């Protein structure tokens, strides 16, 4: 597939793009900052400007694409990861504006160009736990895609709005639009510093539902989405199979989730942020993790 990948220079994208390239996809990175990865063109695009989005999606991405002499090639898929990626980085209204407007522009252009596969990055924060003022516990565990999404913060609000926007475009066009509620993304080099903390201070993982997703496995998830057609509008949690703390699940429940309904057994070190739907419908099978460290 020829893939229009927004935000490819970010924490998740810089791991996902090489994996997609290795899997045979031709990826163009759309970002304000270049990735500079061999074989991956970089286009600097302000995604809040609809004209720039439409123009970039209709244009050649590199000199090599001029050689056939058949005009700008069409994109087969869009992966939209670009965003202000968290709270506390800019003013709340700017986070909301950039994230919602850029997502509308990308979806609008993609569907008007007839692209039938669109993958949108949403977030674990939509469940209203991560950036809550004070402690908010899940309505039940493990947290799955049916869990209520009632956030208190501008970042998570923008992601909920983006999900509704995506659903509207899918209803209008019938395209496959898959929304990924991505848990806390961890890069391989981060484990050396994080692993001791996760073992010694499990309470610091409460806001992430004691879960995480390895950046490489997130790339695998995107590839699974690109290879799976015909699902229409779908929302998928994205996490690794195991929790991000040294405690076993029974002890996590005892210490942090006493009284929270347990809808399915959670054994050993299984994740409290269910990825079962992605495993069942997409063949998602994460293979990296922090427990691989000695």
Automatic annotation (TrEMBL):
Coiled coil: none annotated. Residues 5-189 form the NAD-dependent epimerase/dehydratase domain. InterPro entries: Epimerase_deHydtase, NAD(P)-bd_dom_sf. PANTHER family: NUCLEOSIDE-DIPHOSPHATE-SUGAR EPIMERASE (PTHR43103), PUTATIVE-RELATED (PTHR43103:SF6). This is Nucleoside-diphosphate-sugar epimerase. It comes from Rubellimicrobium thermophilum DSM 16684.
